[in-house]
Amino acid sequence: MATSSVSSNLLPSSSSRPIGSASQDSPCRLPLASRIFVRNLPYSTGEATLIKLFSKFGQIVEIKLAREEETWRSKGYAFIQYSSQEQAVLALEEMDRK
Q1: What is the rounded distance in angstroms from the CA atom of residue 13 to the CA atom of residue 67?
Q2: Which of 39, 47, 41, 34 has the alpha carbon at shortest distance from 5?
């Protein structure tokens, strides 16, 4: 399910949701390695589900769930930004192929 980090550029059809107070942990100032790419998600998966599943590995700073432009339906993948690289690696190790 989770694979290594990829480019932070998303299509305009994605939704971006900052989590918690990110004033000092702006996604722009965090290392790219603290962002993970999650794929093969059911189309019904929402941001709340991703928060529930992935917050146990660390502080989530931002979630970008890719959505169809017209229907706003999930495209089946998301980017999750953690506050540290260690948290992202832990999430990758624990959630890979699940």
Answers
A1: 6
A2: 34
Measure the CA–CA gap between 69 and 6, rounded to whole angstroms.
21
pTM over cut 0.85: no
10-residue stretch averages of pLDDT, the chain, 98 residues long: 38 47 54 89 94 96 95 94 95 92
Q: Look at the domain 16-95 and name its fold.
A: Alpha-Beta Plaits (3.30.70)
Q: Write down the domain spans for the chain.
A: 16-95
Q: What is the DSSP string of 29-73?
A: TS-GGGEEEE-S--TT--HHHHHHHHGGGS-EEEEEEEE-TTT--
